[in-house]
Amino acid sequence: MSRWIAWRIIQEIGRDRRTLAFLLLVPFIVMTLIYVAIAEDETVKVGVVTRGAVRLFASQMIDAIAKEDNIAIVSLNIPDDEIDNKVIVKLIRQELNTRKADVILYMDENLLNERFDNKPGNIHLYIEGTHPTLTATALSAIADAMDDLAAAMPTVIHADCSAMCADSVNSLPMETKKHYLYGSEDYRLVDYFLPVFPPFFVFFFTFILSTISFQRERVNGTLERLMVAPVSFFQVIMGYVGGFFIFAGLQAAIILTYVLFLVSFSVNLMQVIDIAIITVLMMLVGLMLGLLASFVANNEFQAIQFIPLVILPQIFLSDMIWDIGSFPRFFQLLSYPLPLTHANTAMRNILLKGQPLWQSWPQLLTLAGFSIVILLGLMRIRQNKSF
Amino acid sequence: MQLMVKYMLSITALSKQFGQHQILTKLHLEIAEGEVFGLLGPNGAGKTTLIRIIMGLIKPDGGDVLLFGKYRPGSIEARRLIGYMPQQHSVYPGLSVLENVLFFGRMYRMQDADLHQRAVDILQMVELEHRKNDLVANLSGGMIRRVMLATALVHRPRLLILDEPTAGVDPLLRIKFWDWFANMVESGTSIIVTTHNISEAERCRNVVFLRNGQKLEQGTPQELMSSYHADNLEAAFVEATRSRAGNENNGALS
Ligand SMILES: Nc1ncnc2c1ncn2[C@@H]1O[C@H](COP(=O)(O)OP(=O)(O)O)[C@@H](O)[C@H]1O
Ligand SMILES: [Mg+2]
């Protein structure tokens, strides 16, 4: 009768402490992540650099920008007494590169001279450029602020240099000149998202498939038979690597072709090779994690429960869709132990920033490190545990 | 012909506990080469645990196991020389019969030409040649047992360890299994076989009665039957169990 079947299920799952813990823990984790991802608006970090007499009205400009939504004015590490234009621009690029700021507004000495000469004058916008959403937010906020300011500006000039220029009020709107560190104005949102998908899918599927097939091999008793054959555990794992390599490769090829077809920028052969290398590294991490999951799981219930536990936090916290920089500090720290975070960074370095692969060496090293550490852990567990 | 050692397997003072349960208690056992040796006992006697220790799959708490006079369980030399058929179905259901046999042969580094010939011979022996291209998933229980036997002996092990090979096998096939064991011993393979179906073990050269992880008796089936005045081995086992229980009770009273 149904109620006895229900009772049997309650007994069985209820007694499996770990499955029960997963069952209760996973929704909690996911809800927290969803809340953080949605509640925290992305904030754009805007820096301002002014030189010469421009400072006099720059503060009003800064106030106007800061009033816009989702903008944080950040202070930059550029000495005030640095006046060499070339050096300033170099420093600005550095600050963008390290993501101290997403956009930097540079109003140089010439600006005021040009205004006096009855020219519109240029405001330089230095834009990091790989995050289309951040760029768009910053540009519209700055445009709004400049509209607000346009009305105030003639007065400003009048007040500060009444005698000298009272008769030459310049009411032309200022012009903005955009300099992209990476990419261009043409980057669309999809261009930002697409690069993360090849390693993501390969990781995801390799993880699931290896979790289940290794669990099955344990339950079937075939793993035991491999262990009594003159085969080392390392050879077994390498066999898994070889087997999954084929499928991961096919999958990666399909996703990659699709991605290359969809993105608006062109991708060269070298970049494709770089992507393949990162994808292979992610496949290895997925495989090792899958083996680990099925190793520490005592039954199929537990093995399956590992899947959301590994996949979901990586979707939220790996900078894949939501900018991790906008998350609270605690969650930013949580993103470091997630392999996908590093794969995403490397993929964007290659595709969006056009960097050569070696410049992503910290990411490559981290990903390789994940696989090696888990592999050593597996061999360690294997020594102390029979199947 | 391989050089015979005095004992193919010597077990001294072997003990194993799972949590609070003492599974094996100071077990001593010596098994000679060149025979079918029966490890007999009811369910839960500790047969599988003992075999898993011999295979190096679990570590004993105490005691010693020596294979072929020099190798430890789990050592690469021991693994090469032993074939193992576990109690549970342990072949790949998604592979065909032949593919399973070839796979396990390759795990023992057999060369292809030799392996293919050997696979054909073995499948002929277990009478599965006509089903060699069928997926194991589509076979009956008795056929799967035969596939398992084939995969366990494909690499010509010197010692074949079979854990309840005839469990769930129909009586006719069971007789065939024992015929095959006899043939294998004749061609130089030693066999250790466990069963809880004690009467079938009359075809062993030597047997040991195991109960609660302890040795009740050891000898040839004929010796054991006559010493307990039984006309079959199962009756002898029951008698041995009874008299041991009696002794224990007497000991407790005195
Ligand atoms: N991994 C294990 N953990 C705890 N108890 C076990 C384990 N394996 C076997 N046992 C216990 O050891 C006893 C002997 O089991 P086993 O060796 O399988 O007996 P047999 O093969 O003779 O039927 C049983 O009581 C069983 O419950
Ligand atoms: Mg058993």
Number of domains as seen in the coordinates of chain B: 2
**Treating each run of at least 4 consecutive H or I residues as one helix, how many helices of chain A?**
16
**Beta-strand residue percentage of chain B:** 15-25%
What is the chain-wise order of helices and strands of chain A?
HHEHEHEHEHHEHHHHHHHHH
Shape of chain B: globular
Number of domains of chain A: 2
Q: Mind explaining what this structure looks like?
A:
The complex is a heterodimer of chains A (387) and B (254). Chain A has helices at residues 2-15, 17-39, 55-67, 85-97, 110-116, 132-160, 162-165, 189-193, 197-220, 222-228, 233-262, 269-296, 300-317, 329-335, 339-351, 361-384; strands spanning 44-50, 71-74, 103-107, 122-127, 175-180. Chain A contains 16 helices and 5 strands. Chain A has a 5-stranded mixed beta sheet. Chain A has 2 domains: 44-185, abc type-2 transporter like fold (3-Layer(aba) Sandwich); 191-384, no CATH class. Chain A is an alpha/beta fold and 387 residues long. Chain B is of the alpha/beta class and 254 residues long. Chain B has 2 domains: 1-68 and 159-254, 3-Layer(aba) Sandwich (Rossmann fold); 89-157, no CATH class. Chain B is 38% helix and 23% strand. In chain B, the strands form 2 sheets. Chain B has a 6-stranded mixed beta sheet, sandwiched between helices. In chain B, strands 2-1-4 form a 3-stranded antiparallel beta sheet, covered by helices on one side. In chain B, strand 1 (9-18) and strand 2 form a beta hairpin. In chain B, helix 3 (97-107) crosses helix 4 (112-125), helix 3 packs parallel to helix 5 (141-153) and helix 7 (221-227) packs across helix 8 (233-253). Chain B starts with 8 loop residues before the first strand and ends with a helix. Mean pLDDT of chain B is 91; it is low at 250-254. Chain A binds chain B through residues 220-222, 224-231, 386-387, and chain B through 52, 55-59, 76, 79-80, 82, 84, 86, 88-93, 104, 107-109, 151. Adenosine-5'-diphosphate binds at residues 18, 21, 23, 41, 43-49 of chain B. Residues 47-48, 87, 163-164 of chain B line the site of magnesium ion.
